[in-house]
């Protein structure tokens, strides 16, 4: 019986490795595809202010998507500023300061969201497919059972969520308000993976009903390796649930060469995917 179980686990591991290899190959291909080039060409069109000014805007509101002055939006994209728009202050080229506005505070023929989607050729964090509401609810409840605070908040256009990396106290996973349950689930899995993979610096999690805390892994990886591992966990689970994510596109921004995957650990990633999946997939 034990041999049969070991053989089953070995086959599962082989299948997961094959799936991961395919994901990485697709990510590499996507880097050279027209959609990826279109994505970065569009973003590059907004590099019209200095990095220092970008930092100033970020300090005023880290959720800003893209920003520009009144003339920038009017002349380049035929967009106007909403009356209730919040201005951000940056340093002017030939003067003390100037005001800029986020794309989400502009108006035009298209809504800000549709404008961004047309320009990028995709909608960030979009997930195709459907899941049972029970699976979604179980995932949220199980995360809370581990002492993780789950919150829904307005986030920037590109951001689907994040997990706090404060070492002390209970971790919090913040998810994007207004997203579909499928989109929220894929991001939730990604952020849970960061925790269980030992990326966040948290030492323990306290599972409801257990007297002793559960120790977490402690690992020091590059940012690229951490994102590769976390998104791969999300991809493996979502793939099994019949959800099609944009993992290949997401990873394309991290996989630039073979060195980027050097720290990626197949074994820990697969074991973490199994652990998280068992929390809510019955």
General description of the model:
The chain is mainly alpha-helical and 282 residues long. It has two domains: 2-32 and 124-280, no CATH class; 37-120, no CATH class. The protein has ten helices and ten strands. It has helices at 2-31, 34-44, 51-60, 70-77, 112-120, 133-145, 181-196, 223-240, 247-252, 266-280, and strands at residues 67-68, 80-81, 88-91, 97-102, 106-107, 149-153, 161-163, 172-176, 204-205, 214-215. The strands form four sheets. A three-stranded antiparallel beta sheet has the order 1-4-3. A three-stranded mixed beta sheet has the order 6-8-7. It has a two-stranded antiparallel ribbon with strand order 2-5. A hairpin with a 5-residue loop joins strand 3 and strand 4 (97-102). The longest helix is centred in the N-terminal third of the chain and has 30 residues, at 2-31. The model is unreliable at 1-11 (pLDDT under 50).
């Amino acid at each position: 019986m034990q041999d049969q179980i070991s053989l089953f686990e070995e086959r599962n591991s082989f299948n997961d490795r094959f799936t991961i290899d395919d994901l990485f190959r697709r990510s590499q291909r996507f880097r050279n595809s027209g959609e990826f080039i279109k994505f970065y060409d569009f973003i590059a069109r907004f590099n019209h202010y200095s990095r220092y000014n970008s930092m100033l805007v970020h300090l005023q509101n880290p959720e800003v998507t893209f920003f520009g002055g009144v003339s920038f939006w009017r002349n380049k994209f035929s967009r106007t500023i909403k009356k209730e728009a919040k201005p951000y202050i940056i340093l002017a080229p030939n003067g003390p300061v100037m005001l800029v506005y986020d794309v989400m505070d502009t108006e035009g023929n298209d809504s800000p969201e549709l404008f961004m989607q047309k320009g990028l050729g995709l909608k960030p964090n979009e997930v195709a497919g459907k899941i049972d509401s029970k699976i979604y609810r179980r995932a949220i409840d199980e995360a809370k059972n581990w002492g993780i605070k789950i919150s829904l908040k307005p986030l920037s256009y590109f951001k689907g969520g994040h997990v706090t990396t404060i070492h002390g106290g209970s971790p919090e996973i913040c998810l994007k308000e207004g997203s579909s349950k499928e989109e929220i689930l894929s991001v939730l899995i990604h952020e849970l993976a960061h925790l269980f993979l030992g990326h966040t610096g948290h030492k323990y999690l306290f599972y409801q009903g257990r007297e002793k805390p559960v120790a977490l892994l402690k690992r020091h990886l590059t940012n690229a390796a951490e994102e590769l591992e976390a998104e791969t966990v999300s991809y493996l689970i979502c793939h099994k649930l019949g959800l099609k994510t944009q993992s290949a596109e997401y990873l394309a921004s991290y996989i630039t060469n073979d060195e980027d995957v050097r720290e990626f650990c197949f074994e820990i990633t697969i074991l973490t995917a199994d652990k998280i999946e068992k929390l809510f997939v019955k």
